[in-house]
Amino acid sequence: MDVLTEGVELSDADLALLAELAKGVTVDRVGRRLDISGRTVRRRLRVICDRIGVATAIEAVAWAARRQLI
């Protein structure tokens, strides 16, 4: 199921990625847990950041946490 908030849609996979980062897990470890490469994680993070209008992964995590999505 996708989550739509403030006109921005994030997939469950996007939210899972942000939730792992919120726990303090490294990008490479997130990749291993989600069975994707660290490079793919970084690319997906960039897409998420662009979609929600923030500059960094930390801001993306904070954005999702403030909206109680993670």
From TrEMBL:
Single GO molecular function: DNA binding
Superkingdom assignment: Bacteria
InterPro entries: Sig_transdc_resp-reg_C-effctor (IPR016032), Tscrpt_reg_LuxR_C (IPR000792), WH-like_DNA-bd_sf (IPR036388)
GO BP annotations listed: regulation of DNA-templated transcription
A Pfam family recorded for this sequence: GerE
Residue ranges annotated for the HTH luxR-type domain, each copy included: 7-64
Protein name, as recorded: Regulatory protein, luxR family
Natural source organism: Nonomuraea maritima
Higher taxonomy: Bacteria, Bacillati, Actinomycetota, Actinomycetes, Streptosporangiales
